[in-house]
Amino acid sequence: MERRLAAIVCADVAGYSRMMGADEEGTHATFKAHRSAIYPIILNHGGRLVKNTGDGFLLEYPSVVGALQSSIEIQTLMVERNGQLPADRLMQFRLGVHMGDVIADEDEVFGDGVNIAVRLESVATPGGVAVSGKAYREASKHIRVPLMDAGSRRFKNIDEAISVWTWDPSGSEGRDLALHDKSNLPAQYRTAIVGVLPFVNLSDRAEEYFSDGLTEDLILALSLQSFFRVLSRNATFSFKGKNLSTRLIAREIDATYLIQGSVRRAGNKIRVTAELIAPESGEQLWANRYDSDIGDLFAMQDELTTSLSAAIAPEIFRAEASAPARPSADPTAWDRFLKGLSHYYRHTKTDFEAAIDLFRQAIVLDPALSIARAYLATIMVQGIQYGWIRSTRELWTEAMSLAESSVQLDPRSSFAFGLLSYMHAMEGNHDVAMEAAKKSVELNPYDMGMRGVLGLAHFASGNHPQAIELFSMAAQRGNSDPRFKWDALLAFAHYMLGQYDAALSWAREAMYLNPNHLQVLAIRAATLAEMGQADEAAKATKVLLNGFPTLTVERHLRNFRWKNPADIAHYREGLLKAGVPLRELSLAKPASKRSA
Fold first, then answer.
1. pLDDT tens digits for 62-118?
2. Is the dihedral of CA 153, 154, 157, 160 positive or negative?
3. Distant-in-sequence, close-in-space partners of 143: CB < 8 Å, separation ≥ 6
4. Longest Cα–Cα distance in the chain
C-alpha cells in the first residue's frame, strides 16, 4: 500500500433506482452507452477508472485541474446527449470533486480523499458538479467557467466542515469551452448480401415518410462499403406490410443478412430500434435502440443513419470472418481471404503470421482482389508497430505498393484511400496523405474510422489539437475495428502537446488490449520521463527493453517522418530521459534496413 495525493471524482446517476424500476434493461443499456461516450474525456485528462459502482463510478486523476475540467466536459456532453432523449429517459450524473490524500492498494483507493468526494457528489445538483474548497483553490485559476460559492457543509463521518463550490451547465459557457478544447470489389467475392427491410412505422400513417426515408438512407450508407453487397430499395420494399418470416424473405431475395427495425414518434421525440439478423439460423447478431429529439429533421435523420451504419457494418465484417465458406464463382481466393480475416480478428502474433500467409495466397489466386491487398498492407504495418514483425525497407516498400494498387483496383474504397493516406503519412508525404484522407472521408462520410485516418494526417503534420478531436470522435463511436488503434494514437498526440497525464492514461488503456505493443511501451516510458517520474520511467524502459532488447532511439526513430522536427526532437528527448539507449555499441546494421 502507498499513500499519495490525488484528485478524486465520484459520480452517480440521479434517480437511478426509479429508472431501473420503470425499465431495468433500457436504463442499464442507456447508462452503459453514456459511460462509453464519456470514457475518452476521462482519459484525455489523465484520469483512470478505479471502479464502477452500479449506478456510477469512481475516478482518480493525478491533477485536480484535469479532474475538474473533465467533470465539466462530461456534464456538457451529457446535456447534448440528453437533448436527444425523451423526457422519461433523461439520465443526469451528479459529480463530486476533491483533492486529498488517498491510500492506494493495488488498483483501489481509500481514505478521506475518497470519502469527501463521495459526500460532495451527494450535494451536487443533477447534471452538475460539486467541488471542495481545497480543489477549487488549486484549480480555479486554470478553469475558464464560473463556479458558485455554496458555503460550508458538514458531512457524516467528516470531522471538519467542507467549503463547497458548484457548477452546472445552465447559464454557463462550459459548452463552448468543451468544444473548443477538445467497390469495385467483384460481385462474386462479395458473397455477403445484405437486405434492409422497410423500418416499421409505429406512429400515425402520416409519419411513414420518415421511416421510409431512414430505411433508404441506411441502404445508401451501407452500400458505400466495399465488403458486401446491399440490395436495392426495390428488392426489399416489396415486402413492406407483409407478415412473412425473415427466413422466407431472405430466401426470396437471396440475402445473407437482414436488417429490420421500427420507428416511433411521440411529440418531438423519435425512438428507432434496429437489429441485424442471420435469417437462416435466426440468430440476432446485433441490436440497439436510439432516442432523439426531432429538432432539425434532416440533421437528426443523418445522425441516426451514421450511428446505425457505424454500428452495423463492423458486425457484418465480424460475422463474415467467422462464417463457413460459401460457394462462389471463384471460392478459393475469397475463402482464403476470409480465413485470413478470421485470424486477423484474433490479434495475436501467431494469428498475424497465419493471416499474412492466407492474404498472400488470396492475392496469388486473384491479383485483382483489392481488399486482400489492403488488409495485407495493414497487418504488415501493424505487426511492425507491435514489434511482432522485423521492419525493413523492403517491407515498407511492399506495403506502399499494396496500398497504391488497392486504390487503383478499387477507386471507390474508402478503406483503400485511408490506408494510402496512412502509408504516405508514415513516409513523410504529408500533402499527399492529407489529400488521400479527405478522399476517404468523401467516399464514405458514415465511416468514423476514416475520420480517424484524417486525424492521423493532421497528427503527422503537427496539428495535434485537430488530431485529438478526430481521434476522440472515432473512439467515442465505439469503433472496435482492429484496423484502428485510437488509444495509442491519442497517447502520442497528447504527449506532443505536453499533456502527459492524458498521454499516460491512453497508453495504459492501449496496454490493456496489447501489453506488448512496442510503440505504446515506448511512449509510456517517454511520458513518465517527461513527467519527472524517474523511477517509474526506468521500470517502463526495463519492460520495453526486456521485450525488445535490440531497440535503440536511433533505430526506433528511423520509422518516424513527422513534418515538424520539434515533434521528433520532443519524442527523442523523452526516450533518452527514460534511459532508452541512443545507439548500439556494435557496428551499425546496413543502411537498407528499417527497424521498429
1. 999 999 999 999 999 898 888 766 666 688 899 999 998 888 887 888 888 888 998
2. positive
3. 65, 68, 69, 72
4. 79
pLDDT per residue over 480-498, tens digit each?
A: 678 888 999 999 999 999 9
From 298, 329, 307, select the one nearest 261 (Cα to Cα).
307
Cell digits for 155? 458531512
Nearest CA to 78 out of 174, 180, 182, 181 is that of: 174
Which residue's C-alpha cell is 457548477? 167
DSSP per residue, 80-106: HHHTTS-GGG---EEEEEEEEEEEEET
Closest by CA to 265, choosing from 288, 223, 310, 297, is 297
Grid coordinates of 11: 459520480
DSSP string for residues in 511-547? HHH-TT-HHHHHHHHHHHHHTT-HHHHHHHHHHHHHH
Domains, the chain, with CATH or none: 2-181 (3.30.70.1230), 193-322 (3.40.50.10610), 485-585+592-596 (1.25.40.10)
Q: Is the pLDDT of residue 327 over 80?
A: no
Whole-angstrom Cα Rg for the chain: 26
- Residue located via cell numbers 495475436: 348
Answer whether 12's CB lies under 8 Å from 94's CB.
Answer: yes
Q: CB-based burial of residue 516 (10 Å sphere; 0-12 exposed, 13-18 middle, 19+ buried)?
A: middle
Query: How crowded is residue 233: how many other Cβ atoms within 10 Å of its Cβ?
Result: 15
Question: Are 119 and 162 spatial neighbours (Cβ–Cβ below 8 Å)?
Answer: yes
The secondary structure of residue 199, as a DSSP letter, is P
